[in-house]
């Protein structure tokens, strides 16, 4: 029996699709980091400028992003104050349609790639996760350079096994229910065969820290693709 205890919840890149057939690493490798930072959000206005200590979360995130070898770094915004805060990187003025309160991120990314034909891969980074580490992003770039079509972050944990700390995927074993008009229905299990913990591998939980995605996936309207292999996940 292993001596296993959960130390700290961390977040890393772990999930991606299989390799592309017609991908050329010499020509198709402009990786553009993109932060979508709208001004007028209904929830918390200018939430990207919220401060931790003396620095805005946008400043903290950009500081990390600038330590990583991206081909270009962009903030896409519709707001003057965010424009000023992004003084050290490129700014893309976001179109009105893509910057409404209910516009999903994919619209912001599509708006960006329309005027940036050079971007082969878009690394969408959320600055509402200011605890992002540069090596998460470096790991993701590494997978992209191996030909991955998309890389996104899910929660992971550090555990101690035999007194050695190892990084491992955090798997959720929650049995989830959906409320419907008629009552409730199980979402991820069968009530006649309720799984015990040892019966399944649990679920991976996206943490929204980043999404690296190839242009071809974005133009189809997606930030992710679902093809991936377990072997790849284990290697991270
Ligand atoms: C934060 O900024 C203010 C004004 O610029 C300064 O007086 C203060 O020392 C700063 N605090 C920290 C923790 O850097
Ligand atoms: C973050 O803010 C500090 C203090 O104002 C500034 O010196 C630094 O250049 C900023 N970093 C970025 C990436 O904008």
UniProtKB/TrEMBL annotation:
Signal is among the record's keywords: yes
GO molecular function (one): N-acylneuraminate cytidylyltransferase activity
Keyword field: Signal
Coiled coil stretches, renumbered: none
Biological source species: Zophobas morio
Entries under Pfam families matching the protein: CTP_transf_3
Name of the protein this chain belongs to: N-acylneuraminate cytidylyltransferase
Segment forming the signal sequence: 1-15
């Amino acid at each position: 029996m292993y001596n296993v205890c959960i130390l700290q919840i961390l977040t890393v890149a772990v999930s991606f699709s299989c390799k592309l057939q017609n991908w050329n690493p010499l020509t198709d490798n402009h990786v553009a980091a993109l932060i979508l930072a709208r001004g007028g959000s209904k929830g918390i206005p200018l939430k990207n400028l919220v401060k931790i200590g003396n620095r805005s979360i946008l400043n903290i995130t950009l500081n990390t992003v600038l330590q990583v070898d991206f081909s270009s770094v962009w903030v896409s915004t519709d707001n003057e104050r965010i424009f000023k805060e992004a003084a050290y990187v490129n700014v893309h003025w976001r179109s009105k349609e893509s910057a409404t309160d209910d516009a999903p991120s994919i619209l912001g990314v599509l708006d960006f790639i329309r005027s940036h034909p050079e971007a082969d891969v878009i690394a969408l980074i959320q600055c509402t996760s200011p605890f992002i580490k540069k090596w998460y992003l470096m790991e993701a770039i590494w997978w992209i350079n191996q030909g991955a079509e998309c890389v996104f972050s899910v929660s992971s944990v550090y555990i101690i096994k035999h007194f050695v700390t190892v990084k491992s995927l955090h798997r959720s074993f929650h049995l989830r229910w959906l409320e419907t008009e008629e009552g409730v229905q199980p979402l991820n299990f069968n009530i006649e065969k309720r799984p015990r913990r040892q019966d399944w591998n649990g679920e991976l939980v996206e943490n929204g820290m980043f999404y690296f995605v190839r242009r071809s996936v974005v133009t189809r309207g997606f930030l992710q693709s679902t093809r991936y292999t377990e072997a790849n996940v284990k290697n991270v």
